[in-house]
Amino acid sequence: MAKSKLKPRKASVSASRVAEVAGVSRSAVSRTFTDGASVSPETRAKVLAAAEKLGYHVNHLARGLIHHRSGIVCLIVAEMQTPFQASFVEAATRRLQDKGKVVMVLNTAGQPANVEAALRQTLNYRAEATVVVSGAPPLSLVETCIENGQRVILINRDDAIEGPQFLMIENEAAATEACFMLRRAGCTRLAVVSSTAGTPSIVARETAFVAAAKSAGIEVAVSRAGPTGYASGAESARQLLAGSNRPDGVFCVTDLLALGFLDATRIEFRLRIPEDICVIGFDDISAASWLGYDLTTFRQPIAEIADYIAEMLDEDEGGPAKVRFPVHVVWRKTVRP
Question: InterPro entries in the record, alphabetically (predicted)?
């Protein structure tokens, strides 16, 4: 294999060096790379030609710090391997990059001390804002950002803390609607498949579903077999369906739980969906639409939330302290008509 002849530069090219090669002043170089600044076409052409020849790039970080706008946005994420979190990160990073932002993703799956150190690195780079994408990262990380004067946006959290902006979805309304959907399908023995994660959004869905059923005079069986994942959903099916008084209507607080529940119900218990049991999920991950599942679920407005964040960070002043986004039912074939 032939070796590359490219060699790393020993140092970055300065604006002064560009000015020297172009035969213009240092300020002319600065104006050329500043949007809206006044510079003649002839001077601009000389500067751009010299910059191209020398491989010059504007130090946007240094320029941003002068104007207190670094263009950096930090995303704090937990459980990045789950389909919903991955979809949200993809949508948020794409929209923020469209707005000219530089996105730094901080995975909170590591040791707390390492996560804290990584977050402080983003503070050293003067990140404009931190977006906490899930309910798992500890409140101490949020407080660290606020104490350092950073703009903080929390997704699907409702912490008792002043300073951040809260972007939330209508978890309670959706869970209440799920209860109504199952009752309308003729289900009389209801259950909710939740998890041990205990995040605000999961707790809100579980609590609202139980409350809606109780107001209709129905006691709900609750299963929390483990973390929010496929295996926990399958284990919940084993717990709920092994007895004689098994449920005929189940609300799973996430789609991953629902997929595990569906597979165990069909394969291990030989029950029919939706004839024997109706199942509703939450999130509308891509697998929910697969022919093997065809899951009735609630779609989170990922694109709308990502758009809102990108637009909000483009403004000097933030929006309301709390914004709620509606979720929408996606009817498929796991609930009887």
Answer: HTH_LacI, LacI/GalR-like_sensor, Lambda_DNA-bd_dom_sf, Peripla_BP_I
Instruction: Say which amino acid occupies 128.
Output: E
Strands annotated E in 218-319: 221-224, 249-252, 278-280, 297-299
Cα angle 140, 142, 143; round to 5: 65
Residue 220 to residue 205: CA distance in whole angstroms: 13
Q: Which helix (H) or strand (E) holds 122?
A: helix 112-124
Provide the CATH number for the domain around residue 233.
3.40.50.2300
- pLDDT score at 287: 96
| Helix, strand, coil content of the chain in percent (nearest 5) | 45, 15, 40
Alpha carbons 18 and 12: distance in angstroms, whole number: 11
Round to whole Å and give the CA distance between 332 and 311.
33
CA distance 22 to 52: 11
**pTM to 2 decimals?**
0.77
Residue 65 included in any domain: no
128: how many CB neighbours lie within 10 A of its CB? 18
| pLDDT mean over 96-104 | 88
Please check whether residues 143 and 180 belong to one and the same domain: no
Alpha-carbon torsion (326, 330, 335, 337), positive or negative: positive
Residues 283 and 295: beta-carbon distance below 8 Å: no
Q: What total of structural domains would you count in the chain?
A: 3
Give φ, ψ of 103 to 5 degrees: -100, 130
Any idea which of 27-41, 46-60, 266-280 has the lowest mean pLDDT?
Answer: 46-60
Residue with tokens 């240094």: 62
Q: Which residues constitute the domain of residue 283?
A: 171-300
One domain for residues 137 and 178:
no
Q: Count CA within 13 A, CB hemisphere, residue 268.
A: 15
